[in-house]
Amino acid sequence: MSRKTYTGEGVSVSGPYSHAADAGSTIFFSGQVAKNAPDYKEVTGSIEEQTKQCFKNLEKVLNTANATFSDVVKVNVYLTTMKNFQGMNAVYETVFSEPYPARTCVAVKELPLEADIEIELVVYKEW
């Protein structure tokens, strides 16, 4: 079986991985941090700013996979501190609405590229 992958236009990788891997009706999206956008210029460094950019990066990859945020069934959010939980949620609610996808949110010690947040998705789509 050959592996089908997707690459978002204008989105970089910070290691040896694909932006998304297709497993039939399920597509697994690698985590995105704000700095995965080569043209990202950090203005405030706020969690809200970084969260918005994570979703912009993910949307570019979703587009190449012919999917949208409404196809997302699972979200994993990694924060370097749970003090950013409320700010992340404020942006999250502008991307998703009820019924929300399943979600896990955990605090981690450190993320790539000195990010404060990383978001990954799982999409289910009947073709």
UniProtKB/TrEMBL annotation:
<dbReference type="GO" id="GO:0019239">
    <property type="term" value="F:deaminase activity"/>
</dbReference>
<dbReference type="GO" id="GO:0005829">
    <property type="term" value="C:cytosol"/>
</dbReference>
<comment type="similarity">
    <text>Belongs to the RutC family.</text>
</comment>
<dbReference type="InterPro" id="IPR035959">
    <property type="entry name" value="RutC-like_sf"/>
</dbReference>
<dbReference type="Pfam" id="PF01042">
    <property type="entry name" value="Ribonuc_L-PSP"/>
</dbReference>
<dbReference type="InterPro" id="IPR006175">
    <property type="entry name" value="YjgF/YER057c/UK114"/>
</dbReference>
<protein>
    <submittedName>
        <fullName>Endoribonuclease L-PSP</fullName>
    </submittedName>
</protein>
<dbReference type="InterPro" id="IPR006056">
    <property type="entry name" value="RidA"/>
</dbReference>
